[in-house]
Amino acid sequence: MTPIARRLAMLAMTAGLLFATAAARADVKTGVDAWNQGDYARAIEAWRPLAIAGDADAQFNLGQAYKLGRGVPMDLPVALEWFGRAAAQNHEKARDNYGLLLFQQGRREEAMPYIQASAERGEPRAQYVYAIALFNGDLAARDWVRAYAFMTRASQSGLSQATTSLAQMDNYVTEADRARGLALATAMANGQAPPATAAPPPAMVAASPPPAVPPMVAAAPPVAPPGLAPQPRPPVNIRDRQAPPPAAATPAPAGRWRVQLGAFSEAGRAQALWRSLSARVTGLSAFQPYYVSGNGLTRLQVGPLASSAEAQRLCAQISRAGTPCIVKAP
To answer: Per-residue pLDDT tens for 280-314?
Structure first.
């Protein structure tokens, strides 16, 4: 092939990729338009193949759909999975929702790095949760100045829970620290990063609350009102759901076939997915999970299955529950 021909071939390939990207954006927009019209099933139909292919916006949108139960059954573990996939691609709204949903489901240590990052980006619900962690010294070093600043910003956004908590803080935070917290909140509002506050000198130790002061408790992140953002972003609304008890499982046959449910950079996410799916997919708990490590990834596989046909049937059942999968030959 001549140099000119090679260059023309490369230009054609690049143009094809650009058209593919434009088509993907159009499909995401098609889903958003359908969602806004109340046609949730058509929105899911537009987003699902893009989400499986790795589009972060479509993954975030599917997470929102499963969280709200629109177009699909409400399923917080599946929502968490899709948020996690988009968050791994640095999708900011997905990272916000992933951290808040982890926190709501009791996985507080895992959630806190996401909560802190979201709070520092200005997400009001994360600011509320992070402020309480800073005030209590729970999963974060105690820092009343920063706690007061973050709670002030959350209150200024209109969160009634933050306004109530700020009034409680006023009973314990000194006037000097409140002034420093308000100044820091103003700096945060102007886009300046909130620095860590140095520990108080020995003379200020008495300003700390006595042991009898009860800690503030964040039972769950506040819920944001529904509403679509201008870009492909379905509404935010965290709700609880109790998973139905798994049906009695039939023992799985022997065999060498497996079904792969995903590959993750963190082994804990593979384990969390197995816990979620084995509780929701009828009969799945009868099979054995395999955590196969390699090339920096942990692959979650389930088996053993006696034949390709059985593996295909199981994969189809799992896919209907909202999790894509592939059959692995022996």
So the answer is: 888 787 888 888 887 777 888 888 888 888 888 88
215, with CB counted inside 10 A (0-12, 13-18, 19+), is: exposed
Contacts of 107 (CB under 8 A, 6+ apart): none
Q: Strand, coil or helix: what is 29?
A: helix
In a domain, 113, yes or no: no
Nearest to 259 by CA among 219, 287, 240: 287
pLDDT in tens, 193-235: 665 543 333 222 222 333 333 444 444 455 443 332 233 344 3
Whole-prediction pTM: 0.57
User: Strand (E) positions, the chain?
Assistant: 257-264, 288-294, 297-305, 326-328
Q: Do 65 and 94 share a domain, yes or no?
A: yes
Residues 143 and 184 in one domain: yes
Q: Is residue 241 part of a domain?
A: no
Instruction: Please check whether residue 259 is in contact with residue 227, taking contact to mean a CB–CB distance below 8 angstroms.
Output: no
Report d(CA 123, CA 229) in Å as an integer. 14
| CA distance linking residue 323 with residue 302, whole number of Å | 13
Indicate the SS3 state at residue 196: coil
Picking from 301, 292, 294, 290, the residue whose alpha carbon sits closest to that of residue 328 is 301
What whole-number distance in Å separates Cα of residue 220 and Cα of residue 52? 30
C-alpha radius of gyration, the chain, whole number: 24
